[in-house]
Amino acid sequence: MLSRDHLSVSLHSNGWTLLHSAVLLGSQELVKSCFAHYEFIGDNIYLESVHFQTSLELAIALHRCDILELFKEKIHHFDNTTPRLFLELCFLPQHGIRAFDHPVEILTSNKDTLRITRNLHAIQDCSLTRLLQICLWELDIDFKKEILETLIRHLEEFTGPDSHPAIPCWNNKEVCEAVKILFRETGCSVNGKVEGFPYLMLSMPNVQLVEFFIQEGVQVDGKDQQGHTCLFHAVEKATGSDSPESWYMFINFLLQSKANPNERDNLSETPLLYSLSFRRSLCYFNSSGWSDVPYQAYDDDSGTRVVKIWRLLLEAKARPNVKDEKDRSLLHVLLSLLQTGCLRSSEGLEIVCNGIAILQEYGLEINSRDAKGNTALHLWAILMRAAISDETIKIGSEIVSHGGDVNSRNDKGDTPFHLLMKEPFLRDDLVEPDLWSRILALGMNPWIANCDGKCPFEVLL
C-alpha cells in the first residue's frame, strides 16, 4: 500500500489521511512508514500541509507522546497550534472542538468511535507533563506564557467537576504538576491575575493546585474586582453545579486553609449573604436577554444545597446575623429574591423550612430589622400582596413558628398586616376564605395603629 504507485498526497477523505489512521491506531511503525514514504517521493510539500498539522494535533488529543516524539524529529509544527486549540486538544471536550472543523471530530461525533478510542486509550501510559514537555520545550517564552494563562483561565471548563472530556484522563494532581512546570518554564509570578481574577481563584476546585498557590505565598482571601474571594465563588458554584459534593469538599478545604467566612465584598456582603444574593445578578442578566444565564436551570434541590452551604460556613464561625450595606439580613435577602422572582417559592420554602433552625443554632436574631425598620415578616407581607399561595403562607408560618413577631412595627409604625392590606385586590374579595383563615391564624392583630393612627383594615379605606 505504501508503494509509490498506491499512495498519493491527495488521498484523503474529509481531511482524513492514512497518517491520521496511523496516529489513531497508535502505530509507530506505520507512522514511520508514512514519513519514510513522503521523504522517498520527495514530498516536502506534504510535510508543510494542513493534513500533517492535523495529524500531529490528533496525536495531542490522543495523548500519544510516543507518536509526538516522531513528529518532533521530522518537523516542528507545534508553534502553528494556538494556545487555546492546543489546550482543547489536550483536554478534548466531549462536544468536540468548536472553533472549526477538524479531523479530530471523528472521535467525538460518533459514539462507537469514541468508545473504541477510549478502550485503546485505557491501555496506554499517559502523562500530561510529558506531553507538555514534548510540545513546548523549544517554543519561546511568550508562547509558553500564553499557554499558562489560557490554561488557568479555562481550567474549570477543561478539568472541573462539570467538564465532560471525551477521553477522561488527567486528574487534579496531574494538572497541578503541569501548571507547576509552566510556572517554572515561564518564570511567571503565582500572584498573577487574569482579567482581575487571581490565579488561585481560577484554579477552583482543584485542591492540589490551590494548595500549591497557598504554599507559594498566595493569600487565600485574595479578591477580584467585585471584592469576592475564592470562598464567594465556591459558594456560588456549589449551588448550581451538577457535582455539588466536589464544591462542598472544596469549601471545606478553603475554610480549613483559613479562608475568612466573614470577609466582605464591595457590597458589604459575606459568603453567607452571597449564597443567596448572587441570584440577583443572574436574574438581571436573564431579564436583559442573556439566554445562557443558568439560574432558571437550578435543580429542585438547590434550596437543600443552600442550607448545606450555610451549615459549612456557620461551623467555620460565619456570623448568622450579618447584614449588607442596606442593613438586610439573610432572611431579608431571601424574601427580596422571592419578591423579584429571582428565587422560586418552592426553593424559598425549602430554605426556610430547613435553614432557620440551623441559623438559630448559631444565634440568629429572627426579628432583625433593615434600614426601614422592616423585619423579614414585613417583606413576607409585601410578597403576599403579589402572590398569596400555599407556599408563601407556609413561608410566613415557618418564620412565625421560629419566633418571628407577626405584629412588629417598622419605622412608620406599620405591622406586616398593614403592608398586606395595602393591596387593592383585597377589596375585591379575590383571596380564598381558606387562605385568609390561615393568614389570620398566624396571630396578626387587626387593631394596632401605625404612625398615622390607622389600623390595618383602615389602610384599605
Automatic annotation (TrEMBL):
InterPro entries: Ank_repeat_dom-contain_49, Ankyrin_rpt-contain_sf. SUPFAM superfamilies: Ankyrin repeat (SSF48403). The keyword Repeat applies. Keywords: ANK repeat, Repeat. This is Uncharacterized protein.
